[in-house]
Automatic annotation (TrEMBL):
It comes from Paraprevotella clara. This is Uncharacterized protein.
Length: 428
């Protein structure tokens, strides 16, 4: 089953077993809770994955390449008349490249169930199935510690780290079958399915589809095309080599190290209703195993730079090769979202920014762009990649902290079609 927009999804299925009906007085646990009532069907529940799902921090980790990874902590919560029932814990699902994955589990399901909440990859510290009726959950991403530079410059905003690559669905519409069996459930023929049907005592199978990513991904790559001038932004301390056009790249650009990306206005909390809340700057560092080190030097006219990242077809899905950061982001309906790239000055010299701020050796400067909605599409959308290519043309254009507003936006933006979401290009 392919997910719309090139991303893989997993689907949950409930299949009637061979033991027929069971009453609520049966010795076995019944998937029920609260005030709901109804006949309990003995059912077998199965989870299906076609393709792979991944976590964060590198291309393979956000399912933008061909890698396959497991889904962790899969929980299905039946809902009857708005009342949560006993959650069904599927544990982890091990994925195998090129093979559709399935897992089954037996439980008793009330015929009054008319909705299912499905979750995947929500950390167990936030979501545990437990016993008894489901009590909901709140998952808050951990706060990030401000570095000394941010504290020194009176940056008061909260910081958080990236979310897990969480999945979820609130399925109020699903397919039912009166002839499905455990053995035939996944067959492409021989089983009749009706969409949007209610569960009855004759129901033998239920398919829940549309379990999707609840987060998006910002794939970003940074270039630089800075030049030596007669009055460079960097000083030359006593004993150091004077800067020239010849040594500018080795002395300056190679030693301005790209260390992180900051995203303004990110939600920090996700709950069982698939709702987001909170507001903080997301701080994401490059994975230690894939150190970015520096921006890619590119002297061509910006429209002709060949190393820009883009979303391309990779079989049944999409991938984005060569990004510096693959950052898991919460959906965001705001406009004018600032993204700042953090560089550490390791040149051994003092950098004087355009606003007069001094960035000493070992300290940080931030180079920022502003992302705007286009054609009513949000900058960050669940199950969608946002692609950002940016090039720094002047090291003096930085700021000592990530700005909440910026005038450093120069360039164009355009739609591309995880699916592909919006794509942005900037010369800074």
């Amino acid at each position: 089953m392919k997910m719309r927009n090139g991303m893989y999804l997993f689907a949950t299925a409930i299949v009637a077993g061979t033991m027929g009906l069971a009453s609520c007085s049966n010795d076995e646990d019944v998937v029920a809770g609260g005030e709901a009532s109804g006949v309990a069907n003995k059912v077998t529940l199965g989870v299906y994955v076609n393709g792979g799902v991944n976590k964060k921090a590198s291309q393979a980790d956000v399912n933008l390449g061909g890698a396959i990874d497991d889904i962790s902590n899969i929980v299905v919560v039946p809902v009857a008349g708005g009342v949560y029932q006993v959650p069904i814990d599927f544990g982890n699902l091990t994925a195998i490249t090129g093979t559709a994955q399935t897992a089954v589990k037996e439980a008793s399901l009330l015929t009054t169930v008319n909705e299912f909440m499905v979750y995947g990859n929500v950390p167990k510290t936030a979501l545990t199935a437990g016993t008894g009726a489901f009590g909901g959950f709140t998952y808050s991403v951990a706060s990030s510690q401000k570095d000394d530079d941010l504290a020194d410059n009176d940056f008061t905003a909260d910081l958080c780290g990236p979310m897990a690559l969480i999945y979820g669905a609130d399925a109020t519409s699903f397919s039912t079958s009166e002839d499905a069996t455990t053995e035939t459930f996944w067959n492409s023929t021989g089983v009749t399915w009706a969409t949007g049907s209610a569960i009855t005592t004759n129901t033998k199978g239920i398919k829940i589809q549309g379990v999707n990513y609840q987060v998006g991904v910002l794939a970003s790559k940074v270039f630089e095309n800075t030049k030596y001038t007669e009055t460079p932004e960097f000083n030359t301390p006593e004993g150091m080599t004077a800067l020239t056009q010849v040594n500018w790249d080795s002395e300056i650009s190679a030693k301005m190290n790209l260390t992180g990306v900051f995203v303004e206005g990110q939600a920090t909390t996700f709950n069982d209703k698939l709702e987001w809340s909170g507001d903080a700057w997301l701080a994401d560092a490059a994975p230690s195993s894939e150190s970015v080190d520096r921006a890619t030097h590119a002297e061509e006219a910006w429209e002709n730079v060949t190393g820009k990242i883009a979303s391309v077809a990779d079989g049944e899905t999409q991938k984005v090769d060569g990004a510096d950061f693959y950052t898991v982001v919460a959906p965001d309906a705001d406009d004018n979202i600032v993204v700042s790239f953090q560089f550490q000055n390791n040149t051994g010299r003092i950098l004087t920014l355009s606003n007069g701020t001094l960035v000493e050796n070992g300290k940080y400067a931030y180079y920022s762009v502003k992302l705007n909605k286009k054609d009513a599409k949000n900058v960050f959308t669940a199950a969608t990649t946002t692609i950002l290519n940016a090039r720094i043309t002047d090291w003096g254009n930085g700021t000592p902290t990530p700005p909440t507003t910026t005038d450093l936006v120069i360039g164009v933006e355009f739609d591309v079609t995880w699916t592909q979401g919006l794509s942005y290009e900037f010369d800074i």
